[in-house]
Amino acid sequence: MSISILKTTIALLKKELIEHKVAFIYVPAIFIIIITLTFLFGMMNNGNVWQRGAFVASNSDARFDLFNFTYAASVMGWLLFMLIMLFFYFAASFSSDRKDNALLFWKSLPVSDLQIISTKTIAGMIMFPIVIMAWSIIAAIATYIAFLLVSINIPIVSALNLAPSVPTFLNLLASMLVLFTLTLLWYLPLFSAVGLLGTILRGWAVPAFILIMLVGSGVEALATFSGEGYFAALMEQRFKAPFIILSEILPNMEHANPINGLKLTEIISIKNFAPNFASSIDWVGMILGWVAAGIFIFIASEYRRRRIQA
Question: What is the residue extent of each domain of the chain?
Answer without folding.
Answer: 2-306
